[in-house]
């Protein structure tokens, strides 16, 4: 069996290789739209003496909001001494899980493409390659579902913690006083919304790819052979 590298681009013209290329690209969009995010909301405080003050609510990946100070030090806000106050919430686990799965899929797709384009003769010459590919693909379909769902919930928690209701519940001076706290400028979360879309898109793409990988395994060929066997009838010898 020849195991040397043989460059052959024809798999890219077939669903097996083309869908793998799409998976590689969608994984880049998934972790790129989430992992590099940073935003800032402007919080306006309308003091009881008629003055207005503002606070910056900065947040970024991995969204450990409980470690982000909204007010640093013993600051004076609306003539009131306010201790260091942190934002509420922590979406780091879901965000890092999402980005981690996207990076794993990016790397696996890249390795798989290398095998398809240079070692397809080895891949198809043994049972291990297609079966291993199918099992990993099936596992990643499930992981995309889990991490995308978790990140969608985590993103909603980030939105709730950084809107007017979340900031107002965080700042003690906004509660039970004549001071009104309101988020007047919101950071654009379009890229984060896009990351969730790409997460579920990756799940469907990998699920579709699982079928094409399954067709390369011996399980599919054995099933096909068993289905064709009953249709084969022995032709009687001529008299």
Automatic annotation (TrEMBL):
One of its GO terms (cellular component) is synaptic vesicle membrane. It is found in: Membrane. It is a multi-pass membrane protein. The chain crosses the membrane at residues 97-119, 131-152, 194-214. Its main location: membrane. InterPro entries: Marvel (IPR008253), Synaptophysin/porin (IPR001285). It holds the Pfam family MARVEL. Residues 11-218 form the MARVEL domain. Keywords: Glycoprotein, Membrane, Transmembrane, Transmembrane helix. Belongs to the synaptophysin/synaptobrevin family. PANTHER family: SYNAPTOPHYSIN, SYNAPTOPHYSIN-LIKE 1. This is Synaptophysin-like 1.
């Amino acid at each position: 069996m020849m195991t040397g590298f043989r460059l052959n681009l024809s798999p890219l013209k077939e669903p097996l290789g083309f869908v793998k290329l799409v998976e590689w690209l969608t994984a880049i969009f998934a972790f790129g739209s989430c992992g590099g995010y940073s935003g800032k909301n402007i919080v306006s405080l309308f003091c009881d003496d008629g003055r207005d003050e503002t606070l910056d609510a900065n947040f970024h990946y991995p969204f450990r909001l409980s470690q982000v100070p909204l007010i640093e030090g013993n600051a004076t806000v609306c003539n009131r001494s306010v201790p260091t106050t942190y934002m509420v919430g922590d979406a780091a686990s879901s965000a890092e899980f999402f980005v981690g799965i996207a990076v794993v899929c990016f790397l696996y797709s890249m390795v798989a493409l290398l095998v398809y384009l240079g070692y397809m003769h080895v891949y198809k010459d043994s049972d291990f390659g297609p079966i291993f590919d199918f099992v990993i693909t099936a596992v990643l379909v499930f992981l995309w579902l889990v991490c995308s769902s978790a990140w969608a919930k985590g993103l909603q928690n980030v939105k709730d913690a950084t809107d007017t209701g979340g900031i107002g519940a965080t700042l003690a001076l906004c509660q039970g006083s004549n001071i009104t706290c309101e988020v007047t400028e919101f950071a654009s979360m379009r890229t984060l919304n896009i990351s969730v879309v790409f997460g579920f898109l990756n799940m469907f793409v990998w699920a579709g790819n699982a079928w094409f990988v399954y067709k390369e395994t011996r399980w599919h060929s054995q099933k096909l052979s068993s289905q064709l066997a009953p249709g084969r009838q022995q032709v009687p010898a001529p008299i």
